[in-house]
Amino acid sequence: MPALLLALAASAVLARQDDDAADAGRIVFPAEASQGALVFGRVPPGSEVRYGARSLRVSGWGTVVFGLGRNEAGPVEVTVVPPEGAPVTERIRVAARDWPVERVDGVPPKTVSPPPEIAARIQREQARVTAARERDDDRTDFARQFVWPVEGRISGRFGSGRVYNGQAAPSGHSGMDIAVPTGTPVKAPAAGTVTFAEPDLYLTGGTVVIDHGFGVSSNFLHLSRIDVQVGDRVEQGQAFAAVGATGRATGPHLHWGMNWFDVRVDPLLVLERGD
Ligand SMILES: [Zn+2]
């Protein structure tokens, strides 16, 4: 390589190291984020960070993450107590989104207005899924770029108001639906640990939750087959289940939801983060 190019390359490396070094001691959050977004921030390693009622886990290089719900109006505040220096409170504006209404007809009526004994079963099942999402694992699989678990047409969007057989559902659609045939392999959008795997929940059918660390998890619903068990580690891109139409579904599709603990976030925004 000519000397000039070598010198340029060397200075580029030095400049990048300077950026990293400068970033390492700084507090960096976006000024604004969308409803349904995962928000990433940077703090001095060793800081204490609070967001609402939660104390945020801080990675070795100072990454923190939290989620903004569909109905979060903001602004939200994050308080950082660095190992040295005074506490800092960061304010983040929340960009409102439009939530269209999607009508879904032809849903089995017993899944829209379940009888009391079924309602109790649904509650019990939901409580177990919620418990799986409460883990605060120290792995940082969430910090890498996510990939699509299947490729196909988006047939339902996160947050849209849902009307099942003409009856408005109490909350927005909890994830993204991708229309693909039964049997299509579902690949892990990011690495993680399987924290829930059940073949037959009443509403969601075959259901898997993968924990990506720091409270960030993915859930996959209506699966026809599950090839993993609780405790298994999956790598990004690894096929772990097959698409189906089990539970409350009108046809085969993958429902992919994402959470930060109990806060539902939009997988599409997570996918687009690296674009
Ligand atoms: Zn869905």
From TrEMBL:
<dbReference type="GO" id="GO:0004222">
    <property type="term" value="F:metalloendopeptidase activity"/>
</dbReference>
<dbReference type="InterPro" id="IPR011055">
    <property type="entry name" value="Dup_hybrid_motif"/>
</dbReference>
<protein>
    <submittedName>
        <fullName>M23 family metallopeptidase</fullName>
    </submittedName>
</protein>
<dbReference type="InterPro" id="IPR016047">
    <property type="entry name" value="M23ase_b-sheet_dom"/>
</dbReference>
<dbReference type="InterPro" id="IPR050570">
    <property type="entry name" value="Cell_wall_metabolism_enzyme"/>
</dbReference>
<feature type="domain" description="M23ase beta-sheet core">
    <location>
        <begin position="172"/>
        <end position="267"/>
    </location>
</feature>
<dbReference type="Pfam" id="PF01551">
    <property type="entry name" value="Peptidase_M23"/>
</dbReference>
